[in-house]
Amino acid sequence: QPQFPLEISMYQRILIATDGSELSDKAVHSGLQLAALCGAEVVALKVIPHYPRNYFEGGLPIEAADIERVEQQWRAQAQALVDKIRSAGEGEGVKVSSILAKSDLVAEAIIETARQHGCDLIVMASHGRKGIQRLLLGSETQHVLTHSHVSVLVLR
Known about the structure:
Largest sheet: 5 strands, parallel
Shape: globular
Structural class: alpha/beta
Oligomer: single chain
């Protein structure tokens, strides 16, 4: 069987968005493999929501110090998640930059991060962890698909 050099330069910088779910982990793994094949860099992104500030946003009123503590915990968990992706990327020979974005508009944050970092592909899972949306194409994924100006690879 003839050997051909494998050189795919289709993508230069791939944004991999994660929420830490099992399905998202599979998308991360596939995105890193694709980056290794392409010789692409990866931007690993975790979007952190703001803590609900009042009853009308879905939370109970709590002290500002408690909100800050919870948000710091979320940041630490998000940092650990993107650090794990960076380590996995090193194992694949892929350079990974990690980004934490704080926003309640997850899809918009993904699209904007891809634009700011010159990404030519977004890799993400078909849905996150939210209730009935687990059965359907996730609303955040749908929004990225319909509003992104770069290619989107959706994995399930």
